[in-house]
Amino acid sequence: MSLVGPGPIVQGEVARYGTAFAACCSVPPGLTGLWQVSGRSDTTYAERVALDLDYASCWSLLRRGSR
Asked: Fewer CB within 10 A of the terminal residue: the chain, N end or C end?
């Protein structure tokens, strides 16, 4: 587990991630991530998946390349 990264995905959430599951699991889960700092309570589950996928797709030490 790392400090920043997608939250751990439990078995019951795998189906909700759909095709994004593999990409989101390609980076270590984190204690906090984009979803948590982007208004966790004010976002939909689909937005959570999109944020996790964005993080996994654009991950770098400096987080460059993100939108």
From this structure: C
The residue ranges of the chain whose pLDDT is under 70 are: 60-67
| Position 32 in a domain | yes
Q: Identify whether 63 is part of a domain.
A: no
Structure tokens at 2: 């790392």
Residue 65 placed within a domain: no
Domain region containing 33: 2-58
pLDDT score of 66: 46
